[in-house]
User: What shape does this take?
Amino acid sequence: MGLFDFFGGGKKSEAKSGVLEVAWSKNAAGKFRRLPFVELAKENVSGVSAIYVIWHGGVKPGWVYVGMAEDLAMDITDAKQSTEIMSYDMRGGVFITWQTFPAKMAPGVFAFLSDVLQPEVRNPEVDMYVNKEHVKVLPPGYTKESFSQLIG
Assistant: This one.
């Protein structure tokens, strides 16, 4: 299944394959957040630098956008106001998750996820990191096994 095997993940640790396991952010109920309903005041993400991933659910779920934020609250606001991103909400809901990474590691994570997930809405900032050494992380919802099937 892979793409939305939401029970995968865990604490940050490196797998034998050199892939970093990431505890992607979830709500208090342990579920990924629906983007339209994210309440920034409750999330405490103002000024937070993070990598975030947006996807849509539905019959054929898919990756929508990958971002690297200096202020996650601003990026979430922009995503919620983006007609291009929010047009996917009718396909089973638009979801978001994020994780913080050390400043030196974040560009490599961003480049890796953008390359591997191939989101529907292209982030123009990815061009600045096209030659950046990738930092392999498990995307949201993946287990080591399902991820190894994705990348071969």
Q: What stands out?
A: The first strand starts at residue 13 and ends at 14. The beta strands are 13-14, 20-21, 33-34, 50-56, 62-69, 94-99.
